[in-house]
Design brief:
Length: about 350
């Protein structure tokens, strides 16, 4: 996560005699950040000065560093946070609509990211158009996702949505094995959609297809935006565009219910769990692990969604749907593991 340097107080100098005054600052420089840009400082607070050699001090400093958490665990925590946020969002449907929940999530996420990234608005017409298209793809993806959650289980919505960018990436490949993985993923989507005799809401399935299309556009446009707008500034601007795009739908669907304090609190929690925390965890993990390993772990997202839906929402999938989730996860894993290491997806 990139934090503006103006928001961070300078660390206190170490005292003489091997003692360090509290708070102690641990500075972590991102390799991706350019010189002169932001540095993330994590402060480990202690109640009184302690000798630098004591175990308590070493433990406090270690826990204050993102490097204290292994990258695979960071990835899993980020994906778990995303799905828990979706489960919390589903609880909001009783007091507000799916479009209202989308408005709260994107609105709070945009505010947080804009404060942290502080992006400039001098982009140029071409870059501004890319950012606008990126934000609209983000809006479509989120609106369709929460509309789908209102009608189908969490595992179904996540798996079909995940299949969108997966099939797009496999379609661009000329490898024969990737055709097989694409067929496996497509078969998994058909099983989830009711090929095995399970009844699934048709409108919910259409929303899931829109999620898949929006997710694929989000990935493709996000790559183009990140090449033109460095750091997290492109994401912050795209999130702001998405929040403005869904605002009319949220107001029309929920009205003054969006101003309820409890609804606002849950909306802020959804934004943190589904947008800010997962993005920060995944970016920190990606800087410390090969892209191939990152893609393997990301393949587990549909399974995590189905598991969270079962535990938190009591959504038990039928056996054909479980097989469909396994097919999509297997296709993503196979496409990553069989591919040569030098050509692994970045």
């Amino acid at each position: 996560m990139i934090v503006p340097s103006a928001m961070l107080a300078p660390p206190g100098p170490p005292r003489s005699g091997g003692r360090r005054s509290a708070p102690a600052a641990v500075e972590i420089r991102s390799r991706a950040a350019r010189s002169g840009t932001t540095v993330v400082r994590v402060y480990a607070l202690s109640s009184r000065p302690l000798p630098a050699g004591r175990p308590a001090t070493r433990l406090t400093l270690a826990l204050g560093q993102p490097r204290a958490v292994p990258p695979p665990l960071l990835m899993l925590l980020g994906m778990l946070s995303t799905q828990v946020g979706a489960a919390v969002a589903k609880q909001l449907f009783g007091s507000t609509s799916a479009s209202g929940t989308t408005t709260l999530r994107l609105g709070f996420a945009a505010l947080i990211l804009l404060v942290l990234a502080r992006p400039g608005l001098r982009l140029g017409w071409r870059t501004a158009g890319l950012v606008a298209a990126f934000g609209l793809a983000l809006a479509v993806m989120n609106l369709a996702f929460y509309a789908a959650l209102d009608r189908v289980p969490l595992g179904v919505a996540v798996t079909i949505g995940f299949a969108g960018p997966l099939l797009v990436s496999l379609a661009a490949s000329r490898r024969l094995t990737d055709v097989a993985w694409a067929a496996l993923a497509g078969g998994g989507v058909l099983l989830i959609s009711g090929l095995g005799g399970t009844g699934v809401d048709r409108l919910g399935l259409l929303c899931c297809v829109a999620v898949a299309a929006g997710w694929a556009g989000y990935v493709l446009l996000g790559k183009a935006v990140s090449a033109r707008v460095p750091g997290s500034r492109g994401l912050a601007l795209g999130m702001a565009v998405a929040a403005l795009a869904v605002l009319p739908f949220g107001v029309a669907g929920s009205g003054t219910a969006l101003l309820d304090p409890w609804t606002l609190a849950l909306g802020a929690a959804v934004a943190l769990l589904s947008s800010v925390l997962p993005y920060s965890a995944e970016m920190a993990a990606l800087r410390r692990m090969p892209a191939r390993v990152f893609a393997i772990l990301l393949s587990l997202e549909p399974a995590i969604g189905a598991l969270v839906g079962l535990v938190l929402l009591s959504e038990l999938l039928a056996w054909p749907q479980v097989a469909g989730v396994a097919c999509v996860v297997g296709a993503a894993l196979g496409a990553t593991l069989v591919r040569p290491a030098r050509s692994a997806p970045r």
